[in-house]
Amino acid sequence: MGKTIKGIKEKIEKGEAQIFTVQQIKEMLRNQERISIDDVDIVTTATCGIMSGTAAIMHFKVAEPGKFKKAKKVYLNGVPATPGPCPNENLGLVDIILYGTSTSIENPDYGGGFLLNDILKRKEIEVIIESTDSKTIKTSLTLDKIKTARIIGTRMAYKNYMAFINPSDEPIPSIFNPIPMEGPYKGLSFSGCGELNPLQNDPTMETIKIGSPILLNGAPGMIIGEGTRSTPEKPNLMIAADLHHMNPYYIGGFRTAAGPEIFNTIAIPIPILNKKILANTLITNDNIPLPIADIRDRRIINKTNYKIAWMGDERPSYHPQRCANCEKCLVAERCPTLAFKNTLDLEKCFGCGMCANSCPNNVFEMRTGKVTLQTNNKSIKVPVVCRQSDIKRAKKLAEELKYRIESGEFPIR
Ligand code: SF4
Ligand code: SF4
């Protein structure tokens, strides 16, 4: 017999609901524990990774009414945003849409993702408006002055993404690696949290629906539709939430060889209403294929799985005593989240692995997966040189969601 949302809600109210994080369920599976629908009411799933389709819609005051006619160009810390759609003529107000991938006109390493992280950290943001009546307004603001600030993700939580490799001799710059990817077959980058991902645990969207409540970067939000390029085989979601309630740990910038990107973290509960829904949550990384594409044209040329890709450590170990103070520090130059500047800031670290693959003196050590490929009748082992998803952040948000449901703070629908 199945269960109902009403019944699960009653159990939550009585403090009797059996809620597990997705990592707990996978651990139980690996320990060969028996799991039935009587043992599990909700599984909290999550993912964290680069999500290029992220925009912020904001509204704020920049001057007294009548100071300028209408904004033509808007820059926040040098990052261009698109004014509108509302014109706010002569009101001293602007509405803007800011892309998470927008690049600063002053600093090619700084973009929308880094800016949103700075806004959430309550830093002072420099604002420049160029108006249609040829005026330039310079001011500054902090999050409390931004009346409306909502994130809309047009393509989030992609189920089962891809890995990329360069079969050619030429280094290839792309958004899939912090530096031009070296070849032939020198390293592999990949995205996707595999068995933790909400859509991997509910692939036919039995419980994940339009209107379902979710956590986006720690803020309560909602699924507002299917994402762009979503298909039944490779679904993704369109999601919205209020920036004011987000935690800067879960959202930020990520430098790539083709400009700054943005990462987000999403958690979604899966109520276990019947055996089919439970069975879907019992998938593990070894059963989730990871196609490997040629970085030049995204043609699939090989495949592996998420178990192999995610082997190793979640974070690097740091040995500052080994540092030779090189004239040019490759780690500081390459770290995509700017987590290393003389010392390692673990709050900013994404666990991508680039530092361990770059420092010649093993100041950073981190084990990452190695993928075996067949090429030219030879078997070669290719190391993962960059992870563009972060299971540590995903697991943390899955835990946060579990506690919020248990405490009655998060609605189940
Ligand atoms: S590359 Fe390694 S050894 Fe050289 S300065 Fe950077 S951390 Fe130190
Ligand atoms: S793993 Fe290394 S390169 Fe990657 S974010 Fe952390 S410190 Fe930076």
From TrEMBL:
<protein>
    <submittedName>
        <fullName>Methanogenesis marker 16 metalloprotein</fullName>
    </submittedName>
</protein>
<dbReference type="InterPro" id="IPR002708">
    <property type="entry name" value="HcyBio"/>
</dbReference>
<dbReference type="InterPro" id="IPR017900">
    <property type="entry name" value="4Fe4S_Fe_S_CS"/>
</dbReference>
<dbReference type="InterPro" id="IPR017896">
    <property type="entry name" value="4Fe4S_Fe-S-bd"/>
</dbReference>
<dbReference type="Pfam" id="PF00037">
    <property type="entry name" value="Fer4"/>
</dbReference>
<dbReference type="InterPro" id="IPR017677">
    <property type="entry name" value="Methan_mark_16"/>
</dbReference>
<dbReference type="Pfam" id="PF01837">
    <property type="entry name" value="HcyBio"/>
</dbReference>
<feature type="domain" description="4Fe-4S ferredoxin-type">
    <location>
        <begin position="340"/>
        <end position="369"/>
    </location>
</feature>
